[in-house]
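We modelled the chain as a single entity of 214 amino acids. Its sequence is:
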Amino acid sequence: MDKGIMVADSFRSEQECCAELALVWKYAKEGKGNYYEVDGYLFRRDKILVESIGQLVIPKCRRTEVLKLAHTSVFSSHMGPKKTLERIKYSFFWEGLRADVKKFCESCKECQLTRSVRIKDRSLITPMARPELPFEVVNMDLIGPIDPPSSKEHIFYVWLISTLGGACKEPLPAPGNRSNERRYREKDLATTGEKKVGTGEKREGDEKSRGREK
């Protein structure tokens, strides 16, 4: 006998013997709940967007396999509960599907190790005071090193100057930090920037990126 036929017959038997599907079989025979039967297989009728589809009803013994296929397989990319649920519903269904998908995604080890922490605290957010005039507050930041370096292995940075309350941004080239190159201090670059945008009452910057040279 063909292996595919054997698998199909086995799945049909699993649907018939699953205790959780007993009521669903009854609904299918009575034409209720959008359930119906085709060649001995149990389906559910649904509409996603404007497309009518038939969802194969999955017995309990196969549900973990479907969840793994939709979430942890090579082609699934460990999507979140919402997208994993959408992927499954295009082909399969069972009662409690949404809760099972949420529980499975939340217990996925890879997702727990790699997901970003979006809420670190629940303190109130203080609104940032915006300057009344352009160039009143000037922000400066150092971007680099630029990759790849030059053909002579020179390392380059970009000194970015922008203003709050305006759309003006001015990138300025900055030499690298090699020992045999000229050392530019922050005040030298700031002076160059002030010639471009004017002298701000307040200058702000990222201390971590600016503190390369003293």
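As a brief sanity check on the tokenised model: The CA atoms of residues 68 and 74 lie 10 Å apart. Confidence is low (pLDDT under 50) at residues 178-187, 208-214.
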